[in-house]
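Course exercise 7: structure representation. Students receive a sequence record and must write out the corresponding structure in token form. The form below is the worked example handed out in class, using Kinesin motor domain-containing protein (79 residues). Read each field label carefully; the graders check that inputs and outputs are placed in the correct fields and that the protein name is recorded exactly as given.

STUDENT ID: A-19
EXERCISE PROTEIN: Kinesin motor domain-containing protein
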Amino acid sequence: MREVTEKAVNDIYNHIIKTPERDFTIKISGLEIYNENVRDLLNSESGRALKLLDVPEKGTVVEKLVEEKQLIMINTCVI
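STUDENT ANSWER:
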């Protein structure tokens, strides 16, 4: 699974580099579902299993899942 993630991230960043006229915001979350337990991969301090919630406006979401956010602006060289 690691190689799939690396290839996807490389494709995203290659697209960003090839599109300097736009600014991008990237949001990334990571979770593991194993034996019906959901675990946040970006928050190692969260030892407890997270809950899956059905939200009509958004669909299925994970309660208290950490989301990393990064703004990328190629023209101004702020990465």
